[in-house]
Specification:
The chain has 78 residues and is of the alpha+beta class. Helix content is 37%, strand content 22%. It has a three-stranded mixed beta sheet, covered by helices on one side. It is elongated, with a radius of gyration of 12 Å. The model has no long low-confidence stretch (mean pLDDT 95).
């Protein structure tokens, strides 16, 4: 399973989002071809209702802590 697929699966299962887009932006950085190190995540979920931006980000970072500790170098959240 690709890193992108793992990210999509974890966020979908935990947040049941109304909208989820995980975009691999690694090709825009100085990394080897076909890398999975830089991602942009756009997620809209009822689970975020009433939370400040920092709390929403912390929630996503917590769900993806293993990926952020390993192969993922950058995660842009929107």
């Amino acid at each position: 399973m690709t890193i992108q697929a793992v990210i999509e699966q974890k966020l979908a299962e935990a947040l049941a989002p109304a909208h989820l887009a995980v975009i691999n932006e690694s090709n825009q950085h100085n990394v080897p071809p076909n890398s999975e190190t830089h991602f942009k995540v756009v997620v809209v979920a009822d689970a975020f209702a009433g939370q400040r931006k920092v709390a929403r980000h912390q929630s996503v970072y917590g769900l993806l802590k293993d990926e952020l500790a390993g192969p993922v170098h950058e995660l842009a959240l929107h």
